[in-house]
Amino acid sequence: MASSSPKLLLLLATSLLACVGLPVLVAANYAPMTLTVVNNCPFPVWPGIQANSGHDILEGGGFFLPSLSHKSFPAPTHPWSGRIWARTGCTPGSGAQLHCATGDCGGRLQCGGLGGAAPATLAQVNLHHNSDDQASYGVSVVDGFNVGLSVTPHEGRGNCPVLACRKDLTQTCPGELQVRSPAGGGAVVACKSGCEAFRTDELCCRNMYNSPRTCRASKYSEFFKRECPQAFTYAHDSPSLTHQCAAPRELKVIFCH
């Protein structure tokens, strides 16, 4: 026997609940919202998008974005969370392969659910939560830095600031955190976090250091915090600027901004 479609099964279950007088719970759909990714860098980037577990993969998880261009697409109308980052120094391979100097996701053009390799600056996004349709967003350099970025909401209600790490930290990061390109004369293309550079439990906030009480700022996270006070800089960090932004019509992630 052919299996029933999910829609048919949902219809049958809903009808049965209604017949026996039980309440029917329907997932809420929120107002339409646009996600826009902007490349203000003087070079092309390949944005990557990784949804958190159980959430939709958007735009295949990655695409090409030329310098001084943008791409807009509909956000889910149900709760969604994930991260967006820039892949840089990419070289296309055969088929759907793409190998990037920073932010690489398994050598693929469309990340398809995979995360990016550290170091990479992250925009973290959590859409449609709480009863008033809150959008939470932030910038993280916990996994290191490759390009500056900002997250900009438009037409939201409440406190909706722009959050950013705009400086090019590749010009100033400590030598032991620098990632240099084998091509292009060994230019610095990214900055590792202290965790990525040294892999210690203390710097990575692992094991006995995995709590707000024991996970503390280091000289490396303090470098990032001085340069980008609005960003998360280590696992239990708190950003300097908070927000309560409800129902923005658009959320922009802007690279090199």
TrEMBL record:
Superkingdom of this protein's organism: Eukaryota
SMART domains: THN (SM00205)
Leader sequence segment: 1-21
Disulfide bonds: 41-256, 90-100, 105-111, 160-245, 165-228, 173-191, 195-204, 205-215
Alphabetical keyword list: Disulfide bond, Signal
Pfam families named among the record's database cross-references: Thaumatin
Entry protein name: Osmotin-like protein
The organism of origin for this protein: Urochloa decumbens
